[in-house]
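Structure first, sequence second, as always.
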């Protein structure tokens, strides 16, 4: 696959974006989804190397996410959560602060991705730290529900196991793609330890502050439902007390109350407790004698026998009519058509005789309205249950929070349940700062520290690498110059004997021909073949070296140059020496060699023969002629029996 189509960096970034998106899709589907879509487009543009387009789209994404991010980061004292909420509603009709901002971590990761795209940075550079942090976060997330089952998990969207799985797979994919980049970069991992410590500390701190915040919210929600309970109890006690007083007031009379009296007494109570929809006088045979208020519904009940029309209430009514005991019905469908409950109180006359009972019917919807009126609807949903049925409810059921509080409540001899489910955004708005901020700041700080240490270590690494390559370069230069010197030396010297070679000799001679007289001596070791044949080539080589050493030393002392001319032949250039002097020098070398303890196989010392030639006239030297003449003289020396020096004469 071509590199431009699927570059590793773009792929890594896609993986990061997808990982954060998994959570987003489950939680905040509006702005974040839009941001995600934009980022995907930017990634696509980056993959096609359209960097300018990619940068533009990524910058738009950054801008889109900024208000959400700001809403997390600006302290409540500067911009209140309610202000953010009204801003959110203005940007997107019907939106809340929760739809405007993605979960904090996800927002950060999306923004980082956008930033990485804009800067074209290698996101995988910091990946070891980020991947470990993400793994720890997910691990913490996985065990958190077991540790604190009552609390909202740290990242509540990631508790769903498919989301956890997707995260784990994406993390793994990221590691696989980043591994080749990390390989061999030891400093990448050695820079990890300190920031990793910081990550762990900020995770633990975050977990603690998260738990603390959860506890605070829990307590506040408890307090809210507790206050409703207290109010309810007070209300019920008050109205029962009032009704008992109302009922006792008939004990002064001898006859059952007429409508005028009944209405006159009941009016005040009904005004104070407006959820009492019917205050009736019941005769001993369960007939409805008086009702208040005189609504058409209530008036239509007059004369009915409750034992007949409302047999469900018989069990509560009979004790009041016969045994002078109070009784309450279950939650029933009232004859007025509402759900409610009837409380029966016995009525005695002045002679302490049962003359009937007071029936007080209360409507639950109206009672709930009275009790819940002071509670803002936006804070959550409060419900009243009995036998699994909802009797009344108040508040907003959209965006419910994670907790529901249940409280048992006694209503007469009946048991009801009051439940409260605060809205999540209401809970969060009660926190001055979200605990996730401490995590994000901690992670950002750890990442910065990581980058600093990483950069320092990388610089150190590069410095060391540079030093190393400098050293090898210097070594290379040294080796090369030694080689060069050797090559140059070899070009001018004889490898075996170490004296000048023929080429150097000839070059030297061509440049030093001015002096007069000027002599040339040609030496040849006598019967050298025998040395090789009888004593071996190694001995032959050794003899050659010793001869060269003697010759170089002697000729050098006379200001000349001594060279190996080839095989067992040597040549000397002796400026300033006439033929006699040169002959003497050559003879000295002959004698020195004879005394040098270099014997033939028969014990006789090896010897040499030499031909010497000189020039005195100022004419330019004819080198060829000189060499020929010296060679001829040498030849004569050999022919004359060897071990001698013969002077040659230049013809003409
Ligand atoms: N060990 C050794 N032998 C060499 C080297 N160069 C030439 N020779 C030998 O030198 C010998 C020269 O032999 P010849 O030219 O026949 O002459 P010679 O035996 O010295 O006899 P004359 O010169 O006539 O006295 C040969 O056997 C060569 O192999 C060398 O570098 N090392």
């Amino acid at each position: 696959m071509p590199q431009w189509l699927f570059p590793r960096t773009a792929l890594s970034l896609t993986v990061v974006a997808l990982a954060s998106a998994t959570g987003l899709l489950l939680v905040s589907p509006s702005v974040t989804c839009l941001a995600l879509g934009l980022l995907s487009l930017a990634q696509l543009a980056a993959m096609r190397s359209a960097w300018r387009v990619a940068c533009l789209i990524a910058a738009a994404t950054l801008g889109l996410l900024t208000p959400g991010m700001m809403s997390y980061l600006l302290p409540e004292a500067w911009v209140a959560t309610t202000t953010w909420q009204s801003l959110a509603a203005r940007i997107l009709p019907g939106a809340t602060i929760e739809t405007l901002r993605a979960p904090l971590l996800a927002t950060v990761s999306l923004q980082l991705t956008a930033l990485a795209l804009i800067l074209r940075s290698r996101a995988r550079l910091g990946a070891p730290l980020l991947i470990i942090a993400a793994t720890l976060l997910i691990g913490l997330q996985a065990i958190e529900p077991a540790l604190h089952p009552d609390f909202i998990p740290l990242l509540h969207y990631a508790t769903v196991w498919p989301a956890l799985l997707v995260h784990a797979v994406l993390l793994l994919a990221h590691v696989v793609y980043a591994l080749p980049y990390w390989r061999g970069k030891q400093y990448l991992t050695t820079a990890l330890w300190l920031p990793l410590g910081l990550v762990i500390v900020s995770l633990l701190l975050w977990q603690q502050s998260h738990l603390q915040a959860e506890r605070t919210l829990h307590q506040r929600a408890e307090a809210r439902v507790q206050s409703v309970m207290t109010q309810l109890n007070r209300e019920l006690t008050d109205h029962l007390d009032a009704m008992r007083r109302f009922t006792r007031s008939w004990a002064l009379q001898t006859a059952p109350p007429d409508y005028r009296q009944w209405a006159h007494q009941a009016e005040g109570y009904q005004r104070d407790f407006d959820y009492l929809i019917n205050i009736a006088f019941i005769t001993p045979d369960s007939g409805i004698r008086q009702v208040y208020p005189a609504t058409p519904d209530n008036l239509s009940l007059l004369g009915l026998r409750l034992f007949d029309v409302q047999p469900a209430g018989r069990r509560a009514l009979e004790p009041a009519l016969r045994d002078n005991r109070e009784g309450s019905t279950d939650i029933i469908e009232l004859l007025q058509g509402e759900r409610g409950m009837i409380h029966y109180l016995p009525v005695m006359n002045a002679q302490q005789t049962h003359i009937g009972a007071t029936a007080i019917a209360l409507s639950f919807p109206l009672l709930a309205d009275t009790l819940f009126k002071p509670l803002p609807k936006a804070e959550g949903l409060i419900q009243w249950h009995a036998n699994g049925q909802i009797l009344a409810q108040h508040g907003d059921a959209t965006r419910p929070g994670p907790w529901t509080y249940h409280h048992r409540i006694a209503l007469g001899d009946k048991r009801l349940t009051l439940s409260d489910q605060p809205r999540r955004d209401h809970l969060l708005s009660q926190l001055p700062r979200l605990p996730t901020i401490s995590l994000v700041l901690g992670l950002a700080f750890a990442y910065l520290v990581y980058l600093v240490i990483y950069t320092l270590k990388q610089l150190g690494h590069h410095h060391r690498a540079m030093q190393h390559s400098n050293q090898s370069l210097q070594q290379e230069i040294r080796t090369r110059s030694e080689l060069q010197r050797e090559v140059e030396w070899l070009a001018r010297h004889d490898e075996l004997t170490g004296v000048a070679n023929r080429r150097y000799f000839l070059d030297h001679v061509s440049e030093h021909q001015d002096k007069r007289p000027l002599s040339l001596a040609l030496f040849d070791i006598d019967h050298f073949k025998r040395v090789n044949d009888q004593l071996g080539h190694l001995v032959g080589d050794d003899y050659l070296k010793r001869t060269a050493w003697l010759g170089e030393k002697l000729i050098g002392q006379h200001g000349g140059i001594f060279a190996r001319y080839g095989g067992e032949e040597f040549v000397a250039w002796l400026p300033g020496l006439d033929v006699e002097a040169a002959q003497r020098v050559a003879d000295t070398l002959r004698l020195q060699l004879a005394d040098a303890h270099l014997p033939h196989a028969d014990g006789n010392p090896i010897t040499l023969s030499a031909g010497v030639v000189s020039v005195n006239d100022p004419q330019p030297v004819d080198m060829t002629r000189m060499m020929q003449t010296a060679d001829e003289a040498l030849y004569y020396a050999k022919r004359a029996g060897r071990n001698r020096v013969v002077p040659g004469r230049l013809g003409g």
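Margin note: The first helix runs from residue 8 to 27.
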